[in-house]
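User: Second chain of the day. Same drill as before.
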Amino acid sequence: MIHTNYGTYDGDSWEEYCQHLLKTKYNEDYQEMPAHTKGNYGIEGFTRSGLVFQCYCPDEEYDTKTLYKNQRKKITEDLGKLKKYKRELQRYFGPTKIKQWVFLTPKFTNKELVAHCQNKASEYRGMADAMDILDNNFDVLVKDEQFFLREILIVKQILKQKLPIDVDVREDEIIDWRNCNAEYVTTLFNKINVLFNDDEKYDFKRTNKYVYSGPSCQDHSLKSCKL
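Assistant: Same format as last time:
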């Protein structure tokens, strides 16, 4: 796991998080490239305006030298896939040409990684005529999570508000909330109960379970409840 000011990630969670950030930032212009069985040809997704993204996060905290070495290697390898899979990628890009290949990583700590990106950009611009998927002004950039501060706030708020639909609670642990005299609990019980009024046999059972899954009663004697 790698720790930053805004989160804790491993390779899988960073990739998933990047998809949230990219879809939030670029909206309808962004196209994800799921890996599935044949891989994603070295890119996580792209926009029709010519931006291509690849994500990388180490599974452990590295010192500056080791982190740079691994990030540099990843950039070199995945840029190589543009050349290796140019025909396959053309099927997905259509007329879109890659203007920027963006390496997304939670953090980088060595400025030499920027120099490496520029060296690779120059190298691949020299192959633009032979690679129909590259723009003549092709560039390579490295960006950390701070480029997405606005999107991070939006995504965190959305994920925080996600509510589970299915509630798994042991029957012997559920309090009979009808015995609670709190006005708020009574109102909540009545409103949720409406959702299940098509099946009288299970109305109470299911309603009581959903009420239980919310804020808990602090006094199991049910003399007072909190929401």
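Residues 163-167, 215-227 have pLDDT under 50 and may be disordered.

User: Great, on to the next one.
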